[in-house]
Specification:
Structural class: mainly alpha
Largest sheet: none
Distance between the termini: 23 Å
Helix content: over 70%
Number of helices: 10
Shape: globular
Amino acid sequence: MKPLQPVSAAARVGYGIAFFALFVAVWSAATFGGYVQKLFLADPLTMVGEGWNLLVNHGFIVDIGMTIWRVLGGFVLAVIVALPLGILMGAYKSVEAFLEPFVSFARYLPASAFIPLLILWAGIGETQKLLVIFIGSFFQLVLMIAVAVGGIRRDLVDAAYTLGASDSSVVRRVLLPNAAPEIAEIFRLVLGWAWTYVIVAELIGSSSGIGHMITDSQALLNTGQIIFGIIVIGLIGLISDFLFKAINQRLFPWAQA
């Protein structure tokens, strides 16, 4: 191995599978070998059995669908508001000077801290859960998009003005095309963070969703179901991550050059 030396696609897949195999092997050794009690950590076979029971007998697929809907709903709302605001902050320094102090302050506030207020304002229905994800994603998106847009090479902007471009043309035809691949990558990263917020939102006042199932399983000391729920979240996140990468490569092939 050498620093920054690339590996082939086949080798990358092989390394990834090897790590998961090693992880399951260590988990199996710890549980089947009796080093960890099943009360605290279910073995892989028990986890699979509990997961099958959830899917077949308890309608867990509906919980999965509800959680996915909440994540995508809150995240899309955050993108709709954050994208134009982040572009304005990155393109115009006066807007950045006006908004960045508050955005930088707000992005350090944990989304879970807003849950008591959101319950008072929106109740314990779907609106409250969407708002938790919105708050957790919005401020991160705004600042990261602003940095991506504002980091464009100055010589490209100067060249556009030299060729007679207007201010709006510079934003549309120079700043946005250059920042678009990085903005798409920001969406991929923040969507992963949104999954951490939805579980927090579902722990309180929820009658459906993966987080609700995990809470019920904790009360029953059923670590098999808890682990299965965690793995389902990881698998969905992994699939969405690969989809984002594939879409980004298709939309912005020049970013791979």
